[in-house]
Write a structure and sequence with these properties.
The protein contains 12 helices and 19 strands. The protein is an alpha/beta fold. The strands form 4 sheets. Strands 4-3-5-6-7-8-9-13-12-11-10 form an 11-stranded mixed β-sheet. It has a 4-stranded mixed β-sheet with strand order 18-17-16-19. The protein binds zinc ion.
Amino acid sequence: MTCISCPRPSSDRYWDERLETQSRTDWQALQLRLLREHLLHAYLNSPYYGASFDRAGVHPDQLRSLDDVRRFPFISKQELRERQLAVPPFGDLVAVPEREIVYISASSGSTGVPTASPFTGQDFEDWIDYQARQFWSSGLRPEDRYAHSLNFSLFVGGPCVLGAQKLGALSMHVGTVPAERLLAILKQFQATVIWTTPSYAWYLGETALKEGIDPRQDLNVRRILVAGEPGGSIPETRERIEGLWGASVYDYYGLSDIFGACAGMCEVKHGLHWAEDHILVEVLDPDGGDPVPEGGRGELVLTTLRKAARPMIRFRTGDIVSFTSEPCSCGRTSVRLLGVHGRLDDMLIIKGVNLFPSDVEAIARKDRDFGGEYRLVVDREDHLDRLTVEVERSSAYRGSIEELASRFKRQLQSVTGVSAAVTILSPETLPRATHKAKRVDDRRGGVWG
Ligand SMILES: [Zn+2]
């Protein structure tokens, strides 16, 4: 019997070959058509956007090219929260009657009130179809056994499992369980694919070895999808996780305020293919708001193209990223996210130089004399910022600690231009992350502290 909710992909290589391999001109024409309809939907049906566009003196009819999106006002996470508090429970960005909303996710709220992200039935279907397409591009097939070990509690990453189910993989809704339990599940059911955070993939591999399980020999995991931290796009981190597991690591990027994964790696693993039929990308200079040249680092600003329940027009994510529109050797033509270099609020400025934890991570993981775990401690002495990088040595290293510290210091200086004190720690000194690792300990207090 044919499963009508499980459409077959259009070829063995692509989920939707015509869409995924169309020319850049066709992508742009598609985005312009969708954007025009979406802006009009937002303007007519969302009280917030109606007022905000009027205030800015812009109308959806003025959109002639994709560049014209820059005439429309930004929205920040802070404003999103304020609108939700002003018009409870979901805010006045919502552009459909509540009876059409079938699902909400909520962001973790670590910096304030959690914000809800509502979906209509069609929004949800679109999202899961996109997830299936993305999983397919990372090599998942109906023969796979997929263990989804992300949080299900209002977290937008939870339902992504339905994408694996849609493409026909045997899907296990595992959720976040203790490492020992997860290892037992992977072993018993011989899962071939898992999805977790990069630091947890690392921790899980180390825990397995301690329990006498060699992930390369005793488990059947051949692909690891990761998201939630920059590590999956740092080749040095990816390669070390791959070495630990004997599996291939694919990075994904998602955002609760938009939908699950907005981008993911294909099997070529050079950048993350973006869901351009759902989301328009801008990469802007955080100071002036001008677009940065292709390949340069800037703030990611996102505009939904179809999400009817709550359009997001020019949402400032606070993530510092870089992109390319060069064609990928897999044949897909969507733009690729080359890396999330950090968050604007994670960015440290040390004596005037911008520094992201991901820059330090690449060094800590490339040289095998280091254990891979690290932490940045920043304090202030005599009104000057002082950075100390704490990095673990590998358990196999038998050489001089002083030499190791000065090696790290030299590499950090040459890669980032930042000069720091380096403390070498014994293996397993730093706390292991079970979800997202905390990499920065900023003890400077307020600006005038
Ligand atoms: Zn590709």
